[in-house]
Design a protein that fits this description.
Elements: E1 13-16, E2 22-25, E3 28-33, E4 36-41, H1 57-73, H2 80-87, H3 91-98, H4 105-112, H5 122-126, H6 133-151
Antiparallel strand pairs: 1-2, 3-4
């Protein structure tokens, strides 16, 4: 029979009680993420449980784009309208999202690391993306700076 194991990464104290029982006191923090309550050790790094992190809308869109591209390449779907019908969405949305498959690798990495500057949205990346990858990075930086300047 497998017993659950407890890994304590923070500073814990062990208290032995006179009746033979043991109390373990460990510093924890309670955190709410996506409506779920999580118990985290205080000394644990923030990224120690990456599977608990909910995907951002851009990460989901990027995954959809690559899945839809694979469906087209493998012949599973005949056209964008076929994908739209299966997904219950609009053909123009499918076309926009598919543009994410042409993003520069640096931008894809930033999206997956959730390090994209605030104020960059799906439409900023998916509508009329530049053909050259170095233009993607420059255009994205320019848009982020312009949006910050207009807000200030």
């Amino acid at each position: 029979m497998n017993r659950p194991s407890l890994e304590i990464t923070g500073q814990a104290e062990r208290l032995d009680i006179s009746d033979g029982s043991v109390i373990v006191v460990a510093p924890i923090r309670l955190k709410r993420r996506s409506g779920r309550r999580l118990v985290q050790m205080q000394a644990a790094p923030e990224n120690s449980r990456p599977w608990d992190k909910q995907k951002t809308p851009l990460q989901v869109a990027l995954m959809r784009a690559h899945r839809w591209l694979a469906m087209l390449e493998e012949g599973e779907a005949a056209s964008l309208s076929d994908i739209a019908r299966r997904e219950g969405t609009d053909v123009s949305y499918v076309a926009r999202v598919l543009n994410l498959t042409t993003l520069a690798p640096e931008i894809v990495e930033v999206i997956l690391d959730d390090a994209l500057p605030n104020g960059i949205f799906l439409n900023d990346l998916a509508i009329n993306p530049p053909l050259a990858w170095h233009s993607h990075v420059n255009d994205l930086t320019h848009r982020a700076n312009a949006r910050h300047a207009s807000i200030s």
